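Record 1 of the preview.
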Amino acid sequence: MSQTMSQRQPPLSTRLPPLICGTATFNNQYNPDPYALPTTAIVHEALSLGVRAFDTSPYYGPAEDLLGSALNTPFVHQNFPRRDYFLLTKVGRLSGDEFDYSAAWVRHSVQRSLERLHTDYLDAVYCHDVEFVSPAEVLIAVTELRKIRDETGVVKYVGISGYPVTILCELAEMVLAKTGEPLDLVMSYANFTLQNTRLASIAQPRLEAAGVGVVPNASVLGMGLLRRKGVPIGAHGDFHASPKELRAAIQAASAWSDAQDIKDNQLEKVAIRWAFEHWLHDGASLGSSGDPASGIPWQRENTEKYGGTKLGVSVMGVSNVEELRETMRVWRTILDGLEDGEKTAVDAGRGLDDRARSLQRQRDVEVLARGMREKLGDWIDYTWSSPAPGFVNKRSAPAVPAPLLTPAASPDQLPKGAVVREGSGLQSMPQT
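->
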């Protein structure tokens, strides 16, 4: 049997950066007007700060278009060749109550993402929110993505994403049993947070046994649940499925933290650092050894020297440049506090004082996190239903949707079609 493209790809765990910039915030679910966000500035600053991976989805409203526009600029083309960063997107979810995992739609969705992102290949493609469809449908979509991977190479790695960790485990085990090949990655969201750590306690052993390569931890604030001002209210209103009693318990825990005589005791700051720091350690067995965005001057060889230290992979979400810079500051102080963090701090030009501050902050966060978790009591590891009881998929037959409105071009955006091509694309897919 001839060697497939997958067999020629190195393991994703040797390449994927452990910090991914998510774009779910480039969406009216989280922000009233995503076109008003400085998305190009966010993407450019992220690249400049060493971020080398971006996660998106067609379900995130205009997110793919906005990310693609930000990447299709002279600044990016001149400074960041396509091979130097990862693009991860998804297929299958069309709207809140529409899913299409058919082979035809998977091919259409991949082609559309290639066009929106102005790229000739996608580093990874997930089947989006797999709990909303049947296992048989998931198997169809995974099989088709792998067929695209093997026939054309425009998809490099294939995975699934969703909320209920038991379903993610069952599907990963099914894919391995049915196909003899494990999933490259499984992304869970809101399941390794200050409030809920079921990704580690329940899912991790089973996903390891199912041979999954990488498990990114997304939405470390529980889709905005772990914020002092509560869940975000976008153009769709209050979308969050959490009950009011859980929200009240979190606000009580937040108030307790505010009353402590410890610097930077705000719920969000504690929750972000706690989740990033703990998943770096706890998720390392399902992590990756790609470029960690530590601030050390980057060279391409960093991502080609396979076999380095594996770190648990996290997805961050920001809505402005200031949030991005603060998140990156936190991330780097966490790296400074790792076992080899002294060398990282010195090599990145931060120095030993930064490592000492990182270790002190680590202790402070543990005190605050322990106290807030005690306040949450029985709400620890609570999860809401997904899908909600009575859910019905309203997608009856495949159909090509109307295109999204095109956002205003950024000043430095290249003309449409002015793309540096590195491959042949997926010519057999339907066009929008």
